């Protein structure tokens, strides 16, 4: 191994350092781009724009982002999010305390946009159903389901208490968009064993990019089985890139716990078209890589 080359782990620490110190030197950016797959525009499926940010206030770390859903009537959702590269040590202290990651605070991840787009495209799938989103981050997909599908209930959950606070604020901001759908936020850790009030109560679980960390696979699989209705048709819809062997190992956990899954690569014409464009090269996502960036659909059920 070339001793002058930087390891992936060292470069990931550089990403953290850059976020904390807001470094912008060209050498640091060049090196971290080699292992960061973060997109500038993502899949660009749901138009969005920053509508408010206050750089001179105490809330300079936040911005309000307007998402315009590409459906009849063009309903809008307003999400308060952290601005890019705006983490602090407290974020990581909380992550260590709760044994969770802080990726939900970093940005709106591309797989979440794909999940939200897919769900709004299939309102009949969710109509009248009880739905929970796991590892939701700012909650875009859960909010889209609540606003566009006539689900009976949507629970938007995350294990990070900071993230859950953002979800609560975003639910309150958009409450007029939900019609008769009940929407609430919840702090949910996948290693919780006492979830009696939620056991076997959901028709649909949705999640995006929740399979990267292999140490959470077993607890996540157990949580899926516990939350899904056992005696009625129910399903979990996961959108996750392969990310090396992480997705494969997660699916093994799904099988080992007695659940069944179907893996689909081409599940939506518009998403697939955008993927093919990115594979050919696009300045909006210069480091796009199919195995690390393109989310596959994993449909998980209790029964074949």
TrEMBL record:
One of its GO terms (biological process) is methylation. One of its GO terms (cellular component) is nucleus. Coiled coil: none annotated. Signal peptide: none annotated. GO terms for molecular function: calmodulin-lysine N-methyltransferase activity. The keyword Flavoprotein does not apply. It comes from the Eukaryota. It is found in: Cytoplasm; Nucleus. PANTHER family: CALMODULIN-LYSINE N-METHYLTRANSFERASE. InterPro entries: CaM-Lys-N-MeTrfase (IPR025800), Methyltransf_16 (IPR019410), SAM-dependent_MTases_sf (IPR029063). Pfam families: Methyltransf_16 (PF10294). Its EC number is 2.1.1.60. This is Calmodulin-lysine N-methyltransferase. Keywords: Cytoplasm, Methyltransferase, Nucleus, Transferase.
């Amino acid at each position: 191994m070339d001793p002058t080359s930087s390891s992936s782990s060292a470069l990931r620490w550089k990403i953290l350092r850059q976020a904390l110190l807001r470094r912008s030197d060209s050498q640091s950016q060049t090196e971290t781009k080699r292992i960061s797959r973060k997109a500038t525009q993502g899949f660009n499926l749901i138009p969005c724009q920053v509508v408010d940010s206050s750089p001179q206030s105490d809330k300079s770390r936040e911005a309000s982002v307007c998402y315009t859903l590409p459906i009849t009537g063009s309903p809008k959702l307003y999400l308060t999010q952290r601005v890019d590269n705006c983490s602090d040590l407290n974020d990581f202290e909380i992550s260590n305390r709760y044994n969770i990651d802080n990726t939900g605070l970093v940005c709106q991840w591309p797989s979440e946009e794909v999940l939200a787009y897919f769900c709004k495209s299939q309102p009949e799938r969710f109509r009248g159903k009880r739905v929970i989103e796991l590892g939701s981050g700012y909650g875009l997909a859960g909010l889209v389901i609540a606003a566009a599908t006539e689900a009976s209930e949507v629970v938007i959950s995350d294990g990070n208490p900071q993230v859950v606070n953002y979800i609560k604020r975003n639910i309150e901001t958009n409450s007029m968009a939900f019609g008769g759908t009940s929407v609430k936020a919840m702090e949910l850790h996948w290693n919780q064993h006492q979830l009696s009030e939620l056991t076997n109560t959901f028709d649909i679980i949705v999640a995006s990019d929740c399979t990267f960390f292999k140490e959470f696979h077993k607890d996540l699989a157990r949580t899926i089985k516990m939350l899904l209705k056992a005696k009625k048709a129910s399903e979990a819809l996961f959108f996750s890139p392969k990310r090396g062997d992480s997705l494969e190992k997660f699916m093994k956990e799904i099988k080992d716990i007695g659940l069944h899954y179907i893996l689909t690569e081409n599940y939506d014409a518009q998403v697939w078209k955008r993927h093919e464009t990115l594979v050919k090269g696009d300045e909006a996502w210069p480091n796009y890589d199919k195995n690390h960036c393109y989310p596959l659909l994993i449909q998980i059920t209790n029964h074949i």
